[in-house]
């Protein structure tokens, strides 16, 4: 991979981290709509296209959009960044007392991580998985919450056969 492409991806990941931090700051200040808009802007930056071009696609298609033409390392970073943004959205929905949307965002993030782990050996999702646990603890019990817990368990399990564990 050309050094310019690698530098671009590293800068993009740093920028997405700033977006996520800004979304958290806005959420903590009670500015939920602004936080969600920041997450959406970050997602558009990550996918390099307007939300209408990726948001209605299946999770498998979204992961494919993130990794196509990328090295395994860059694909991992982009998928991890996407999951982090989805978790930020989930935390914002939780603060707005929108439990179903919070759980849906977490479920989507976990699906992204599971697919990325299948496609991109060495993915370390543990830091993001650890963020979802406390978020779940503050949400009411229901079928969706149990499904999210099951997905967390899948990510806590060793990678599928034939794939190395993260270094």
In short:
By secondary structure, the protein is mainly alpha-helical.
Provide structural commentary:
- It is a single chain.
- It contains 7 helices and no strands.
- The protein is mainly alpha-helical.
- The protein has one domain (3-156).
- α3 packs across α5 (99-119) and α4 runs parallel beside α6.
- The radius of gyration is 15 Å and the shape is globular.
- The two termini are 22 Å apart.
Keywords:
single chain, 167 residues, mainly alpha, 0% strand
Would you list the SSEs in sequence order as H and E?
Answer: HHHHHHH
Strand runs, count: 0
Mean pLDDT: 90
Summarize the amount of helix as a percent range.
over 70%
Percentage of residues in strands: under 5%
Q: Helix tally?
A: 7
Classify the secondary structure makeup into a structural class. mainly alpha
Q: What overall form do the CA principal axes indicate? A: globular
> How would you sum up the major sheet?
none
Oligomeric state of the chains?
Answer: single chain
How many domains? The number is 1
Distance between the termini: 22 Å
Low-confidence segments, given as residue ranges, are: none
Radius of gyration: 15 Å
């Amino acid at each position: 991979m050309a050094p310019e492409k690698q530098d671009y991806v590293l800068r993009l990941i740093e920028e997405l981290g700033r977006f996520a931090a800004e979304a958290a700051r806005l959420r903590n200040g009670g500015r939920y709509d602004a936080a969600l808009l920041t997450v959406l802007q970050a997602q558009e930056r990550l996918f390099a296209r307007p939300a209408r071009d990726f948001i209605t696609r299946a999770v498998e298609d979204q992961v494919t959009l993130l990794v196509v033409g990328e090295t395994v390392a860059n694909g991992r970073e982009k998928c991890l960044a996407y999951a982090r943004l989805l978790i930020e959205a989930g935390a914002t929905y939780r603060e707005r007392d929108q439990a179903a949307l919070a759980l849906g965002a977490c479920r989507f993030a976990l699906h992204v991580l599971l697919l990325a782990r299948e496609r991109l050996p060495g993915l370390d999702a543990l830091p993001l998985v650890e963020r979802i646990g406390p978020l779940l603890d503050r949400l009411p019990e229901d079928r969706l919450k149990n499904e999210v817990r099951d997905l967390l368990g899948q990510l806590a399990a060793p990678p599928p056969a034939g794939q190395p564990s993260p270094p």
